[in-house]
Design a protein that fits this description.
The chain is of the alpha/beta class. It has two domains: 195 residues, Periplasmic binding protein-like II (D-Maltodextrin-Binding Protein, domain 2); 200 residues, 3-Layer(aba) Sandwich (D-Maltodextrin-Binding Protein, domain 2). Helix content is 49%, strand content 14%. The chain has 18 helices and 14 strands. Strand 4 and strand 5 form a beta hairpin. The relative contact order is 0.18. Bound molecules: beta-D-galactopyranose.
Amino acid sequence: MKTRIFSTCLAVAAATMLLFTAQTSRAAELKGQLEIFSWWAGDEGPALQALIDMYNKQHPGVTVVNATVTGGSGVNAKAVLKTRMLGGEPPDSFQVHAGQELIGTWVKADRMEDLTPLFKEQGWMKSFPDGLVKNIGTADGIWSVPVNIHRSNVLWYIPANLDKWGVKAPASWDDFFAIAPTLKEKGIVPLALAENWTANHLWESVALASLGADNWDALWSGKLAFDSPEGVKAWELFGKVLAFTNNDATSLSWQQATDMVVDGRAAFNIMGDWAAGYMSTTKKMAPGSGFGWAASPGTGGQFIFLADSFGLPKGVKNRDNALAWLVLLGSREGSDAFNPLKGSISARVDTDLTKYNDYAKSASADFGKDRIVGSLAHGVTANEGFMSDFAAVMEMYLKSRNAQATAKAAQQIAVKNGIGK
Ligand code: GAL
């Protein structure tokens, strides 16, 4: 696949190569501003700041404007970005998930520049895994530079607390249902949950456990209907899991749900491994002894992946500065400065693992051997249209708890947004 994408891009690449080379070789003289847009604010900021610090050193003449819009998984940032893109005011570079969030949204709308020449210039054609390249490229080009690989299906806990309560990390949902009532009796929330996007996040882990990887993939290729018996079953299991979550979820950020686990108010949380970044970088906790992890129940041997990337919108104000930013993001040094703080693993195949902690080392080993599937909640499997409709479907489920009706609604939005087409 990778070879096919790359060879089709070759002709275009050759034509624009000179242009890119000239631009990036003038890097030392760059001046003016660079506006980068993301949702990595506050506790999510340190890894991005490490990259900005490197950029400032490399390009002292450029003022970096770090435009962030707070809100986990980009719930608020994506709305602001849409307004800016449609209004002809694109940031110089913006955070976007590899997969349909990029391809089925911004590339489809013809808003991005093809970065094939940059990939060739930087020698990146073999620097990223094939599965990831598929999610940033089409037959017409390569559309963003990936900075990381995050895992979505991770169960987090504090080993000392589990020992104290006499429970073990559940390998399956049945294991979880066996210990959850006991935890509840002790006044401990079995599973901490936060605002609504984290319900989508939890749903994908539960749905994968219920459906299995083949059926998960079949949902997104349009081969399995969301309102099939298998699809309905996933919502039913989700409902059973929700019964063991906190009542104040909608008012909490993902970090506050993690805090519930850290403080011993909750036993577990299912969150992407930015939670490892939060616990190790912000909270200074040691992976292994301070906090523990396992694949979310029923998903052992499976890795729900997502990747943050940055692209170059058409018509930006500071194109050369943005290209230099992308050069840094795709480099081994940039990647290995960013990811150890972020909780993710490098998107590159030549990462220096000695720079990473034990959590990241285990994630990296799993990525090498697990069955890899794409994340819905973080842009891999579905476009923005489906995602925003899915948020409404989730709201509906949280209110009605009607698995059958919700599965039907999910199928309707799949058809409407061309899932599997
Ligand atoms: C994801 C993103 C992560 C992290 C998380 C929480 O969508 O890929 O890097 O920022 O949201 O906000």
